[in-house]
Amino acid sequence: MNATSNSPQDTATLPAPSNYQQTEPEETPSPTDTTPSSMRKQERSDADLEQNTTLLNNAAAPKWRPSTTEAMVMVTLAIISLMVSLDATVIVTALSTIVQALNATSTQGFWIGTSYLLVVAVTMPFTASISDIVGRPQTLFTVLLSFTVGTVLCATAHSIGIMLVGRCLQGVGGGGVIILSLVVFSDIVPLRFRPQYVGVLQGAWALGSVIGPIVGGAFASPTRWRWVFYLMLPFCGVGLIFVPLFVRLRRPQATLREMLGRVDWIGGVLFISSATSFLVAISWGGTTYAWNHWRTLVPLLVGLAGLVATMIWERYGAKETAFLRHSLFHVWSSHAIYFGAFAQGLILYAQLYYIPFFFESAKVYSPIRTGVSLLPVLLTLVPASVIVGAAITWTAKFRWAITTGWILATLGTGLSISWNRGTNTAAWAVEMIILGFGHGLNLNALNTASQAACKPGDEGRAVGMYAFLRSFGMAIGVGVGGSVFQNVMKAKLASLGLPTDIALHAEAYLEVLKQMDPSAPQRQAAIDAYVAGFHGVFGFLTGLGGLALIVGLFIKHFEINKELITEHKLVDESRISWRRASQDSRSGLSTADHSRMPSPERGPPVVAEQV
């Protein structure tokens, strides 16, 4: 264990947080007091430190609250995060309509959704690194512009080529928004209170992810599908106005030449190209091409080799400019946390894709009804994320949330294996409620754990790695799930004496199913084949959830009363919130006490890993 304890004297010398005044009143000694002044101050410092440490760890601890400017930053980030998550999932129920309108093939339609997720994942780490150098607001505004241009291209596309270009530009913007939103939160909110406020951001992301299929279903018609993209433009407008207006964080002072010299160009090119190659192979392996086909093996092996080369370069070649820091994996718990982020991204997005697909095929629901059927997840996932954030802030503990979250998520996923065309609404609704609670708990707890486990000052990079691996899992989830689905469905079709090609065009065949006589034996057999495919997917996801639960048990506790260290501070951070001062007075703390107590913004400067 790397535990380091600080003496009261060491704590007293740390700088006071900028959110509080640091004016200590002079102490007038009593005429009868013969104790030396220095000894009196030391005794008082020791007593105050003990008292304030106790206060910090119970309900009476002084609370951090955002200023108006900080609150507007949070609102801005929540709005654009909602936009990005909505854009990622709105395609799910509108995809078949878009493919038909553009006269695209099933393979091309597959890439409308996958290209977005792929670009989101591979550009995240490099975008975060660029923001460290040129500044958060500048980078955030640039990625918003990319998202806006991509949205316009998608909304006006008359060919699959323009649509795919637009989706890739949206992916650059979407990935940047996701990772920079979390990084900016790590710049302005102390870790002790970050779960409570990030819960709102995660809730907005979850809300968009779940209502996306509903919105997509509402506009899934040949004449209205373009509104799926037009609806994003108001969000883009708000973001392009609010980001320069409110997200005013200072950037490190440097000339253009110095900033360009600090960019890890070699590592960035290596990583983006190799990660793209790897994800392309994973996405079409077992679906578009067999796993042993050269079109799958070549990009897979090239991608893996490139990722290994990237790790070697980042470890030994990039040195100070490295954008992938090996220090983020300095303890075993970090590996477990990041695996959990990857697993949750894969499971959650695979479910957001294949659960609506189940309702449209096995239950023969309309796109709108399919979207509405996801409400049980929406009504539990979002509140669970917000509530667990407040609970972590209150208790300063997060392990319970990770364990409980994986138990519920794995249970809910496992219960879905029993679904078939005769499953009643009450049964699948209850199971989706369990699923929503599980994902909601983990969404916030894993994010907090990644920042608690890292070394002081690495919080921004830690949250960037968390967001990247979660998105990496999302990009893989649909592809891997598709491979499992097709293989299981093919086997079932063969056993029923039906053409196995149906599995290769499962989405397009839905229109054929809807036109068939409900009592036709062939229709019932085809639906049974669909159900078998879904059972295969849900079984795979259950196994992965169980593995994540076991791995998560090895995550140790880390102190979240950590120092807030960042070079990217708000321009008006010198102001003092009257609410903080008011709460300090109610807690019996003077403004001077904050210079000595291990406050949420300043806690132990070395991470202590505890059992």
From TrEMBL:
Principal place of residence: membrane
Major facilitator superfamily (MFS) profile domain segment(s): 73-560
Keyword set, alphabetical order: Membrane, Transmembrane, Transmembrane helix
Transmembrane keyword on record: yes
Compartments it resides in: Membrane
Region span, Disordered: 1-50, 581-611
Coiled-coil residue spans: none
Bias (Low complexity): 29-38
InterPro entries: MFS, MFS_dom, MFS_trans_sf
Any matching Pfam family: MFS_1
PROSITE patterns: MFS
Annotated protein name in UniProt: Major facilitator superfamily (MFS) profile domain-containing protein
Organism ancestry: Eukaryota, Fungi, Dikarya, Ascomycota, Pezizomycotina
